């Protein structure tokens, strides 16, 4: 069932989003060569709890950690571990969620460990283009638009730049989703679609918008741990995500970090 949130509920989700943004800002500084993904996970959980919130992911459907820390050909949902040591040039995607006062926020980012200069051919563009696709999808979250407009805005970026757009494969689906009292709510937000199709967007709807692109083909599999999704061809993947509310004034990004404040504010000024 699709649920619309009241202004008061959206404000609670915004508070959760501010906690999550602060955690991601901290993690971005910690994620350096030589650090393990297990260390990142412990830093995240400590900071979330220090700020009076709970990790959304830990225990969710049996998931054992606070973060997803996906490296290189891992797309999403990789479990942090102390034997996964970050190296210069690795492509790291960090996805996390926060539960505060009964409501969730969810966001993710991708970076090149060691900085852009350490990137292999095409990787820096992949990371930035996936982020741009997220912003294009967010910008389509306007009252009166349809959900297909959002999916199309995301997928068009990937197709135009020659990436594999991660969506359905072998009976499974990866994409964005509704969010609120539950981490994953209806509807599913595919990362490709047709404009003018799908449900009409109304004030109070809140979505996690999360494009996933790869340098290769869009095929993927779930590994033996039951969580990690990996490209079939071993090519690099990137993933970005924000939690966003549909409002009469435009898309309200609830998980924006400090370096995204200007772009986030511009969505409400249109």
Question: Explain this structure to me?
Answer:
This protein has 270 residues and is α+β, with helices and mostly antiparallel strands. It has one domain: Creatine Amidinohydrolase (Alpha-Beta Complex). The protein is built from five helices and 17 strands. It has helices at residues 7-30, 37-50, 123-139, 147-160, 261-269, and strands spanning 54-55, 67-71, 74-76, 91-100, 103-112, 164-165, 168-169, 172-173, 176-178, 185-189, 206-209, 212-214, 220-222, 229-231, 237-239, 242-247, 250-253. The strands form five sheets. It has a five-stranded antiparallel sheet. Strands 1, 2, 4 and 5 form a four-stranded antiparallel sheet that branches. A three-stranded antiparallel sheet has the order 3-14-13, with no helix packed on it. A hairpin with a 6-residue loop joins strand 13 and strand 14. Helix 1 (7-30) crosses helix 2 and helix 3 (123-139) packs antiparallel against helix 4. The longest helix is centred in the N-terminal third of the chain and has 24 residues, at 7-30. The protein is globular, with a radius of gyration of 17 Å. The two termini are 30 Å apart. The model has no long low-confidence stretch (mean pLDDT 96).
Question: Could you give a short description of this structure?
Answer:
This protein has 270 residues and is of the alpha+beta class. The protein contains five helices and 17 strands. The strands form five sheets. It has a five-stranded antiparallel β-sheet with strand order 10-9-11-16-17.
């Amino acid at each position: 069932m699709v649920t619309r949130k009241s202004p008061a509920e959206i404000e609670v989700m915004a508070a959760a989003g501010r906690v999550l943004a602060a955690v991601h800002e901290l993690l971005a500084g910690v994620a350096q060569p030589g650090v393990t993904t297990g260390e990142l996970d412990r830093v995240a959980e400590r900071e979330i709890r220090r700020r009076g919130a709970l990790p959304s992911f830990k225990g969710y459907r049996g998931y054992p950690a606070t973060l997803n820390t996906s490296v290189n050909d891992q797309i999403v949902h990789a479990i942090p571990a102390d034997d996964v040591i970050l190296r210069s040039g690795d492509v790291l995607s960090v996805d996390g969620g926060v539960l505060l006062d009964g409501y969730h926020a969810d966001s993710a980012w991708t970076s090149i460990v060691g900085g852009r200069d350490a990137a292999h051919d095409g990787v820096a563009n992949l990371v930035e283009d996936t982020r741009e696709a997220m912003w294009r999808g967010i910008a389509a979250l306007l009252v009166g638009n349809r959900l297909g407009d959002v999916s199309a805005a995301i997928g068009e970026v990937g197709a135009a730049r020659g990436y594999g757009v991660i969506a359905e494969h072998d009976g499974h689906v990866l994409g964005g989703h509704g969010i609120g009292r539950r981490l994953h709510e209806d509807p599913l937000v595919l990362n490709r679609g047709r404009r003018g199709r799908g449900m009409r967007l109304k004030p109070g709807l809140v979505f996690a918008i999360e494009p996933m692109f790869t340098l290769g083909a869009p095929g993927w599999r779930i590994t033996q741990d039951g969580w990690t999704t990996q490209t079939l061809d071993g090519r690099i993947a990137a993933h970005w995500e924000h939690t966003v509310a549909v409002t009469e004034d435009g898309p309200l990004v609830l998980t924006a970090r400090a370096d995204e404040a200007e772009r986030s504010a511009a969505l409400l000024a249109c």
